[in-house]
Amino acid sequence: ISTFPSPGEFVGGDLTQDMAWDGKSLWYANQFKVFHLDTSGKVLDSFVFPKNVTGLDWDGSNLWLAYNDFPNNATLAKVSTDGNVLKSYPSPVLEINGLVWVDEDLWALGLDFIGGKPTIYKLSMSKE
After folding, report:
1. Which residues does 6 contact at the CB level (< 8 Å), separation at least 6?
2. Rounded to an integer, what distance in angstroms lies between the CA atom of residue 58 and that of residue 73?
C-alpha cells in the first residue's frame, strides 16, 4: 500500500530493531534510539535509550523495552513515552529478540542459551 524509509541509522554492533502500534501511531526501536512516528513516516518524537533495544511493544499506556545483558539474562523495562524508565524487571530469558503485549501479559521471543532454538515465552507482568 505504501512505504517510507526508516529513520534509524546503523551505528555498529548488532543491528536490532522492533516496532509497536499504540492505536494511533508507530513506535520504532533501532539499536539505542526509539522513534515515535506517524503512519506517513514523519518523526513525531524520539529518545535515546542507554541500552541496545532488542524488543519493543505498547501496553496501552507505556512502552515495554527489552535489552540483552549477556552473560546475564535479558532485562525488561517499562518506559514512558519520553524515555524515562518507570520500572525494570529481570527476565527469565537469556536473550530477547522481540516483544508483544497481550492483555496483562508480555510475550517474548528469545533464546534459553547461546545457539539455542528460538522459543516464545508468556511472561506475567503487572501494568501497575
Report:
1. 17, 28, 30
2. 22
> pTM of the prediction?
0.87
- CA dihedral angle for residue 32, residue 36, residue 37, residue 42, rounded to 10 degrees: -80
> pLDDT tens-digit profile of 44-66?
999 999 999 999 999 999 999 99
Return the HEC string of the chain: CCCCCCCCCCCCCCCCEEEEECCCCEEEEECCEEEEECCCCCEEEEEECCCCEEEEEECCCCEEEEEEECCEEEEEEEECCCCCEEEEEECCCCEEEEEEEECCEEEEEEECCCCCCCEEEEEECCCC
Q: Which of 17, 20, 43 is nearest to 32 (CA)?
A: 17
pLDDT above 60: residue 128: no
Residue 31 grid cell:
539499536
